[in-house]
Amino acid sequence: MKKFLASTVAASALALMLGMTSARAEDTIDPNAKQGGAITITYKDDVATLDPAIGYDWQNWSMIKSLFDGLMDYEPGTTNLKPDLAESYEISPDGKTFTFKLRHGVKFHNGREMTADDVKYSLDRVTNPKTQSPGSGFFGSIKGYDDVAAGKAEVLSGVTVVDPYTVKFELTRPDATFLHVMAINFSHVVPKEEVEKYGADFGKHPVGTGAFKLAEWTLGQRIVFERNPDYWHKGLPHLDKITFEIGQEPIVALLRLQKGEIDVPGDGIPPAKFQEVMADPEQKARVVEGGQLHTGYVTMNTTMAPFDNVKVRQAVNMALNKARIIQIINGRAVPANQPLPPSMPGYDKDYKGYPYDVAKAKALLAEAGHPDGFETQLFVMNTDPNPRIAQAIQQDLAAIGIKASIQSLAQANVIAAGGDKAGAPMIWSGGMAWIADFPDPSNFYGPILGCAGAVPGGWNWSWYCNKDLDAKAAEADSVVDPAKAAERDKMWSAIYDKVMEDAPWAPVFNEQRFTMKSARMGGADNLYVDPVHIPINYDNVYVKDVQ
Amino acid sequence: MIAYLGRRLIQSLLILLGVSLITFALLYLLPADPVRQIAGRSATPQTVENIRQQLGLDQPFVVQYWHYLTRLVSGDLGRSYIQRSEVTELIVSRLPASLLLMAGAILCELLIGLSMGLIAAVKRGTATDQTLMVASFVGVSAPQFVVGLLLLYVFAVRLSWFPIGGYGTWRHLVLPSLTMGILGAGWYARMMRSSMIDVLRQDYVRTARAKGLARGAILFRHALPNAILPVIAMIGIDIGIFMGGIVVVESVFGWPGIGQLAWQAIQRVDIPIIMGVTLVSAFAIVLGNLLADIIAPFIDPRIKLR
Description:
Oligomer: heterodimer
Distance between the termini of chain B: 8 Å
Shape of chain A: globular
CATH architecture of the largest domain in chain B: Orthogonal Bundle
CATH class of the largest domain in chain B: Mainly Alpha
Largest sheet of chain B: none
Distance between the termini of chain A: 54 Å
Helix content of chain A: 25-40%
Number of strands of chain A: 22
Radius of gyration of chain A: 24 Å
Helix content of chain B: over 70%
Number of helices of chain A: 17
Number of helices of chain B: 13
Structural class of chain B: mainly alpha
Structural class of chain A: alpha+beta
């Protein structure tokens, strides 16, 4: 028996899974929204690429979302999944076959209608090694992926076009995260003819089905998006035009915002100006605060003495004064006691974590055979505030007798040291910390805490590999039925609680997001701290000074 | 003259070759793995190896360097790892902005530096002289990052005379040119002062004074043209200092030149861009020095090309 889920049913089932209220895609338009107007966003760095198969930084991530669409998406401002280019989908009882019915009449910016062939083409393209996509690994559960990745096949055997409006995915294992995977940028749908026309430069000439289309790209200066009048989601977007000005230092961007020249500084409020802004009621009123899917942590290399002893790792967890560390970043974070951030499904609210207890930490060290402590190294990325945070950690460690010398290096060098088994005893993750690709608890496990990541060049810098937990993780991810989502989240909570028992990390804090906007910008606050759109949800915001 | 030119051109080519080799080797030795960066954190080892092969990064150093050189000869600087576009295209699109800024900066440093030096020389030993020389010292030693932000704060934010960063009109050009120019102006003020003092001591100046020529005529018609020549000849050598300065100044003012490109590339370890900008800067410096040396004998007949 196949379970058919119409979009509304799916939305409510998923809402149940995520413990939030549901809304249909068509209902999400803000009745107060005004149509028209233009905004200006600034960025310091050039935009790397707008190719959804390649773009993978927080700057282009949200821009790509406005130019392209995927089969799935999230309700604006939330982590609730909803069908997007898909009208509905069905999942087979064994959780290995996903069939999507596509929306009719969706057009690419070049005027051609999007069909199931485009969906298949886009996935074949992103997984093809020639595309060099940093996201190809997300599609590992699709049948035929290994052959494509190895260059033995050009197309994924597990993706079939049933008819122009139906596409079927066969997986090698039940994958509860698959709907999330269909919502990330790497699975966004691209038109074959345009990709072939521009070749490797498609990222500079993006053509999608999204709410906006690219109007201008002057290298190093500006990118202009204009409204797609044929957008399938009637009533969106609200804005006629978005100008991204490139090459603006965050501090300059803030000055321009204060003078009313721009609407959102894309790189945020510069740390040096944060307290000044928050102390001024007029400016503070224009700052929106929200959680983000981020955890900052200290890794301890579990294969290197003395961190191969769990008591030493637990002692480090108890030695850190997290409240004091958060003061260094002007209170722009909340203390963390587990790998998952609070806004992530599966976060264990009842878990208390390790208390800050210097005496107990010392006792644990003595039990582990280091009553006088030991010497070690703490690796850290060399941009502010990370070296200062490392110094605070160093002082906390010194209080229990651990003498850590700080190795302050460029980001790439710290990442290289972490991926080398004998490279780094301890790493402060700041500046490279894990931000989830999609709001699902599994996303914090595999590459950074699972055995798969504990390989040379991997991201599991603790080199923590617990086969038993890997098996439990696979078991949790095979719970595909959305009705059992709460059960699955519990399974994941248990996995992370067990991780914390083994203490390969000392979680330190979860960074909060602070988006500043001009007074003329309208729309619900959660659009400005949207969990999947950084800095803001371009499709749904509007300006108040039109009409 | 021709022989001299030929010899200097060969020397210049060797210098550029040396720069390319050293930069390439340094970037090769970097512990950061560009392939990992392209492949992203969720890539499988197989994906990583595929990309390494496609980019030819699995080859030994000598082979990689040779490939780079052969492409370079045909003007191909490779493809950016992060921006995924041709490095040549990225540099060419940003070069006009940097050249414009450089022209503005030269104008600023000459105007400010030469007038300061001239006044100091004429008022030698007075409080004016000392004040100007202290000012020039401050100009030389003040970090450009600080000068830029100060100018920005005072003239753009407080007084609104100029736009706060950006590119497009002459008003955008003033503050960054001034920031770059202040550093050079300090040097030029000192050089102009000593050169002018030398000239003012010359017999022909004394003669002019003895025959009762007006002070302004002596200064501007007889002394200045001679004093200014050695200073002007320095502009070519300045290009090296400019190349260092634009990285900072362009970032502060959001000026879309190659300095900003270099700064971004360094932060993201985008090796092809770092290589490209380094080579283009080295080329500019070598060219500047060459021109300075060739022009020098025309300006000052005491110098001979050998």
